[in-house]
Amino acid sequence: MPRGIQTRGNNIISESTQNANHFEELRLRLENRSAVCGVVGLGYVGLPLVGALHDASFKVLGFDVDPAKIGHLEAGTSYLSHIGEELPRHLAGSANFEPTTDFSRLAECDAILVCVPTPVDEHREPDLSYVTATGEEIGKALRPGQLIVLESTTYPGTTRDVFWPAILSSSGKAHSLGDDIFVAFSPEREDPGRTSHNTKTIPKLVGGLDDASTVLATALYSAAVEEVVAVKSAEIAESAKILENVFRAVNIAMVNELKVLFDKMGIDIWEVIEAAATKPFGFMPFLPGPGLGGHCIPVDPFYLAWKAREVGLPTRFIELAGEINHRMPQYVVERSVLALNRQAKSVQGSRVLIVGMAYKPNIDDTRETPSVEILKQLESLGASIEYHDPHVASVSNLREHPEILLHSVDLTAETLKAMDLVIIATDHDAIDWELIGRCASLIVDTRNAMARVDGPVSATVIKA
Ligand SMILES: NC(=O)c1ccc[n+]([C@@H]2O[C@H](COP(=O)([O-])OP(=O)(O)OC[C@H]3O[C@@H](n4cnc5c(N)ncnc54)[C@H](O)[C@@H]3O)[C@@H](O)[C@H]2O)c1
Questions:
Q1: CA torsion angle 375 381 385 387 (round to 10)
Q2: What is the DSSP code string of 411-460?
Q3: 163 lines ligand 1 (CB under 6 A)
Q4: What is the mean pLDDT of each run of 10 residues along the chain (464 residues)?
Q5: Beta 384-388 vs 351-355: how paired, if at all?
Q6: How far apart, in Å, do the first and last CA atoms of the chain sit?
Q7: Which of 295, 315, 320 is closest to 153 using CA atoms?
Q8: In angstroms, rounded to a whole number, what is the distance separating the alpha carbons of residues 299 and 245?
Q9: By alpha-carbon position, which residue is closest to atom 35 of ligand 1?
Q10: Contact in structure between 36 and 239 (CB atoms under 8 Å)
Q11: Which residues pair with 354 in a beta bridge?
């Protein structure tokens, strides 16, 4: 064990050769890469993690409740557009990777990494049912000498007070944390679609429920990523991840609020941000937009807000940021109504094309996307809506609007000319902005995408 790290069971390890063996054997297996790793939840976070562990020469078992994903991985085909075909093809051809829905095979794993969803319910309260269900599956297969790491974003205390008890309750056997079972939290900081960083290059925070677990989790990730930062507890690691996401939510809300204010004053927020960003210190640019989407920024801060209520303290920044960001789709709709009105058109009966259904550029993720909210609101005002998104072929079964089913239309000059209004909601690189600028008559631009067009823009452009 490295100097400076004392295990909670320091004396227990010296008393019990058996338990010391679990720690030392597992550490050796992690260091020499003979350990078998299991990744539970093969979505946006879990699949790249499988790739990183596999590249580090571990044998990896991938677990998911969704048989369609397992089918894709067996066939070597992709189900996440930004990940592409290469990784699934590479994994399918490898003897060191097996996807499965058989959770009894968790017993084969020396290290289990959990990347299941952590959404909020309709009251914006944490829904930890995926975490507890996974904990119970792990408990059924639990055996001495396993390291279990929760990666899903959650409030401080979840690993110790919710996840570990769920594992223990279904195991039915006596296990001792830090002696024969090791449990840690390591937040996933993946940013799908970002090309400057990936799973291997983003520093990995690690905090165990005890020091022995921290040491083993550090050994695991050190084999697969460039930098591991061990912190003193799982709670520090859980809180750090939430801090990162609250930081983003609050700053995005601030520029969204200033966007509305500056517009009233006839000032362009985009030019203001560009100017402020020339300061070499003390300023970090955040960009306004049509509202928040995805599984992180609109959701995670409310995990902390919920936990804060338990200790009787308000989280006013989180609530205010949520309120401002949540109102943005409505602001875009109001700007759209105004834009049509200026052209003597009503929303009722207008043809509107929404460009971008994913919540951010260059990915296919439509979870909590503000585009759907904009679509719903305009539809309720009588507009006829179509959308174009090169990454999202259709939208259906969205959690909040399960009734919607639309298919992406081709972006052609004819389509654009037939529209009364084009709303730019997501600025994917693959979109032909010149074509939009040339052929649309009226554009509501929430991403300043038209500023990229070198050639003439004949459309009237309203920023929102
Ligand atoms: N998407 C991101 O950008 C991102 C970034 C950082 C952190 N996170 C966090 O990572 C976690 C996972 O997010 P994601 O975006 O990968 O979600 P996802 O929905 O893309 O993937 C989750 C996967 O878990 C599977 N699953 C659900 N219940 C399961 C169960 N009981 N057992 C096994 N598999 C199960 C689902 O079928 C799905 O394939 C969340 O806590 C999220 O907040 C996400």
A1: -20
A2: --HHHHHH-SEEEE----TTS-HHHHHHH-SEEEESS-GGGG--S---SE
A3: no
A4: 37 49 96 98 96 97 98 96 92 97 98 97 93 98 97 98 97 91 96 88 97 98 97 98 97 98 98 98 97 92 94 95 97 98 97 97 93 95 96 78 84 98 97 96 98 92 97
A5: parallel
A6: 56
A7: 295
A8: 9
A9: 41
A10: no
A11: 387, 423
State the helix-helix crossing angle for 316-342 and 370-380, rounded to 10 degrees.
50
Q: Which atom of ligand 1 is nearest to the CA of 187?
A: 7
Secondary element (H or E) of residue 43: none
Whole-structure pTM value? 0.91
Please tell me the distance between residue 10's alpha carbon and the centre of ligand 1 in angstroms: 35
Nearest-angstrom CA–CA distance, 337 and 356: 19
Q: Report the residue among 44, 299, 300 best suited for mutation to probe ligand 1: largest number of ligand atoms under 8 A from its CB.
A: 44
Ligand 1 neighbour 202 (Cβ under 6 A): no
Measured in Å, residue 47 CA sits from the centre of ligand 1 at 10
The answer to whether 315 touches 308, Cβ cutoff 8 Å, is: yes
Instruction: Retrieve residue 123's tokens.
Output: 């009251």
Evaluate: CB of 45 within 6 angstroms of ligand 1: yes
68-80 core/surface letters (b: 16 or more CB in 10 A; e: else):
ebbebbeebebbb
**DSSP structural state of residue 290:** S
Q: How far is the CA of 296 from the centre of ligand 1 (A)?
A: 11
CB-based contacts of 24-32 (< 8 A; 24+ apart in sequence): 25/145, 26/110, 26/111, 26/145, 26/146, 26/147, 26/182, 26/216, 27/215, 27/216, 27/219, 29/110, 30/110, 30/111, 30/147, 30/216, 30/219, 30/220, 30/223, 31/219, 31/223
CB of 39 closer than 6 angstroms to any ligand 1 atom: no
Q: Which residues contact 214 (CB under 8 A, 6 or more apart)?
A: 5, 184, 206, 207, 208, 230, 231
Six token digits for residue 255: 């520029």
Q: How far is the CA of 84 from the centre of ligand 1 (A)?
A: 18
E strand map for 186-277: 204-208, 228-230
Catalytic residues: 296
Going by the DSSP 8-state scheme, the letter that residue 175 receives in this structure is -
Report CA(399)–ligand 1 centroid distance (Å).
15
Residue 61 backbone class (left: φ over 0; alpha: ψ -120 to 50; beta: rest): beta
Amino acid at 157: G
Report how far residue 225's alpha carbon sits from residue 218's, in angstroms, rounded to the nearest whole number. 10
